[in-house]
Amino acid sequence: MRILGVASASAVLALGLAGNALACNIRDFSAVASCDDNGKGIITVTDTDASGKEATVSVYLESNGADEKLVGTQTVTGTREGATVTFSEDWAPKAQYRVHIKAADIVDEDISPNLTAPSEACKGSGSETTPPASETPKPSETPSPSDSATPSPAESTTAPATTGDNSPSPAAGDSNLAETGANSNTPMIAGIAGALVVVGGGAVFFGMRRRGASKSN
Q1: What does the alpha-carbon distance between residue 90 and residue 72 come to, in Å, rounded to a whole number?
Q2: Contact 69, 60 (CB under 8 A)
Q3: Contact call for residues 69 and 97 (beta carbons, < 8 A)
């Protein structure tokens, strides 16, 4: 009897350990953020629960430690090889996601730690190239060089040439000389100078004759 009791207890313990090993638990679930073949962001949750329990998977985008939005909810039935569910999500680099698992009354908790997206966005993701609205550069108010260099119609109009006398205008020097000759006393001064020359010459002439006459005496 004692031998049968020990054998029964061993069998129950073995069955209990086997049952615990096959029971669904949070360690059967994992999540990863990646890119699909089209370069779009996705979040994939894998369930390796060999007991085949159906579980509900909910993915939340986190912001400052709180749920910002529900990305989506799907159900999955685990397999030993791993069953997956995929959520389309245009995740930003290093974004945080909370993945919650609910499987009957067995599991009701989050995958720990939270899922962190890669540091580089997918090639087809808009979050890689589109800046937030607050950071969108405003168009420059400075006029372009072409605008500032283009003369206005009023500035580009050539002033008409002034019509007048076609005779050539005298040079500035000629005008001054002509004006000086007309208003000066040059003729009178020239006449006086000529008279003085004549008088001087006569005086010299008579002086020389006088000196010659005195020497001869």
Answers
A1: 13
A2: yes
A3: no
CA angle 88, 91, 94 (to 5 degrees): 145
- Structural domains in the chain? 24-116 (2.60.40)
Relative to beta strand 66-77, strand 29-35 is: unpaired
Whether 76 and 106 have beta carbons less than 8 Å apart is answered as no
The pair of structure tokens assigned to 118 is: 């890669």
> Would the pLDDT of 145 be above 60?
no
Per-residue pLDDT tens digits for 21-70: 467 999 999 999 999 999 999 999 999 999 999 999 999 999 999 999 99
Higher-confidence residue of 120 and 216: namely: 120
106 touches 24 (CB < 8 A): yes
90 with 126: CB under 8 angstroms? yes
Which residue has better confidence, 197 or 177? 197
Whether residue 113 is preceded by a cis peptide bond, meaning omega within 30 degrees of 0, is yes
Contact 96, 115 (CB under 8 A): yes
Q: What's 24's DSSP letter?
A: -
Of 95, 99, 52, the C-alpha closest to 76 is: 52
